[in-house]
């Protein structure tokens, strides 16, 4: 399944321009595919046409590309799987070319909807100034006030361009996106849907569950972002939780602890002497299960004057951002920033947090002030209560959405099951074990999930850090 989520991205040349008209009922229109798809498979394409802002009677209509991978079953179930990507600001369709290896198609369709404002949508809320600047900040090691000031200026300029082009930035949020999913279900004639969501997509899935509970049959939530958490208030703490898990695992592994007995202090020493690239490199490694057990070696070697392994990770982490930043800021500055304490957000990049001023926040206070969108309703910052059968995945070392964020859903979701995936990070279900569990769960969401394969996972092998690079 993961191969169907990698980036491919082609231009959306075949979809007409956004219509400027009175608000009409949402509709689905067959249209050429927005990305290149396998010509020998049953893949239907089109666009969902919806109001940009349902709160305005005169809102223009926007166009969201859709892919429908048709089931291989003789009589498919009338409840497809809809994949909700992360971000906010990622494209859902880029990389979606084939359903040949998709096990969900044995019983039902899989539908992919491009998020409103994303790369292939019409309009796309692109901010190329921010994308380029993110690469400059990494390459030039900019931090703190200077980096924030330049990002804020870029956000100000991008907002002006988008608004001048007719964009209503208040129409881009999770509530509107949830209503898009319901509109798509109705337009395509499905009884209910199953939601498979990753990262920010889990927040969107929970919003769908809150707004349209009778339309959702079951959910798989991977790397959960609950609506009530303050992401930017805890960005550095979450990174340190993941780092400490790495160093603690090294400490209890005989080979790793013998080779790198001071890995945690080695990392602190690198940061203290201004080697802030170490944070960039380790941050990349924390997202990759193949690199996680090598972090003690890379850090210890760098502290000893041999930075080659860590430098390779830094190089991989550099380059422009791939997010559609206008969408990202519209969502974030509407439903995250208004409910967080500015002083707590700003404190995440303080030097005394031990990350050399590195910024793991989705957006700064200044950027959101510049973006200037209306705050979401208060309910968007509250837990979702639901009895929809739900399977929750979390990666042991996830530095962005810690496992406790997934566990907390259990208090309000009596039919939810939480599964910790040892040795894994963000996107913990995209592997053979997770795929098998998700397929079985959607086949019968009322049965207790079989977690045997997760319980048998060995986890990260930190003895690898004792070997030579």
Summed up, what is this model?
The chain is of the alpha/beta class and 469 residues long.
What can you see in these coordinates?
The protein is of the alpha/beta class. It is built from 16 helices and nine strands. It has helices at residues 128-139, 144-164, 174-188, 200-211, 235-252, 254-259, 263-272, 277-285, 295-303, 308-317, 325-335, 342-347, 365-371, 403-407, 432-443, 452-455, and strands spanning 27-30, 43-51, 61-69, 77-84, 108-113, 193-198, 216-222, 390-395, 416-421. A nine-stranded mixed beta sheet has the order 1-2-3-5-4-6-7-8-9, with helices on both faces. The model is unreliable at 1-22 (pLDDT under 50).
What labels would you give this structure?
single chain, alpha/beta, 469 residues, 9 strands, disordered N terminus
Order of helices and strands: EEEEEHHHEHEHHHHHHHHHEHEHH
Q: Helices and strands: which structural class? A: alpha/beta
How many DSSP E strands? 9
Individual helix count: 16
Indicate the low-confidence ranges by residue numbers. 1-22
Strand order of the largest sheet: 1-2-3-5-4-6-7-8-9
> Kindly, what is the distance between the CA atoms of the first and last residues, rounded to a whole number of angstroms?
31 Å
How much helix, percentage-wise, in residues?
Answer: 25-40%
């Amino acid at each position: 399944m993961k191969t169907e989520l990698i980036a491919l991205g082609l231009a959306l040349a075949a979809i007409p321009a956004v219509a400027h008209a009175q608000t009409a009922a949402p509709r689905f229109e067959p249209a050429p595919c927005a990305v290149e798809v396998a010509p020998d498979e049953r893949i239907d394409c089109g666009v969902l046409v919806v109001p940009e802002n349902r709160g305005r009677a005169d809102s223009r209509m926007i166009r969201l590309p859709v892919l429908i991978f048709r089931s291989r079953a003789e009589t498919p179930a009338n409840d497809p799987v809809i994949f909700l990507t992360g971000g906010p600001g990622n494209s859902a369709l880029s990389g979606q070319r084939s359903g040949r290896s998709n096990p969900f198609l044995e019983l039902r369709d899989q539908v992919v909807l491009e998020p409103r404002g994303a790369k292939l949508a019409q309009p796309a809320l692109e901010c190329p100034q921010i994308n380029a600047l993110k690469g400059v900040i990494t390459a030039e090691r900019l931090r703190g006030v200077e980096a924030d000031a330049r990002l804020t200026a870029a956000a100000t300029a991008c907002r002006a361009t988008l608004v001048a082009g007719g964009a209503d930035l208040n129409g881009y949020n999770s509530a509107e996106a949830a209503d898009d999913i319901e509109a798509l279900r109705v337009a395509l004639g499905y009884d209910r849907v199953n939601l498979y969501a990753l990262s920010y997509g889990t927040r969107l899935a929970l919003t769908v569950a809150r707004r349209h509970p009778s339309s959702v049959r079951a959910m798989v939530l991977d790397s959960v972002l609950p609506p009530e958490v303050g992401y930017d208030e805890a960005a550095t703490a979450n990174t340190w939780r993941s780092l400490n898990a790495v160093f603690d695992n090294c400490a209890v592994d005989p080979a790793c602890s013998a080779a790198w007995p001071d890995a945690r202090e080695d990392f602190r020493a690198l940061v203290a002497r201004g080697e802030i690239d170490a944070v960039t490199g380790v941050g990349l490694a924390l997202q990759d299960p193949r690199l996680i057990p090598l972090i003690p070696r890379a850090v210890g070697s760098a502290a000893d004057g041999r930075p080659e392994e860590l430098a390779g990770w830094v190089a991989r982490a550099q380059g422009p951002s791939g997010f559609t930043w206008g969408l990202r800021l519209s969502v974030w500055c509407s439903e995250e920033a208004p409910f967080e304490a500015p002083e707590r957000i700003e404190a995440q990049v303080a030097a005394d947090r031990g990350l050399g001023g590195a910024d793991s926040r989705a957006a700064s206070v200044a950027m959101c002030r510049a973006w200037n969108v209306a705050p979401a309703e208060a309910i968007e910052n509250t837990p979702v209560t639901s009895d929809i059968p739900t399977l929750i995945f979390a990666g042991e070392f996830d530095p962005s959405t810690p496992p406790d964020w997934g566990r907390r859903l259990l208090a309000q979701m009596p039919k939810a099951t939480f599964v910790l995936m040892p040795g894994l990070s963000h996107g913990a279900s995209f592997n053979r074990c997770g795929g098998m569990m998700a397929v079985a769960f959607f086949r019968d969401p009322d049965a207790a999930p079989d977690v045997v394969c997760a319980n048998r996972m060995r986890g990260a092998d930190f003895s690898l850090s004792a070997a030579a690079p």
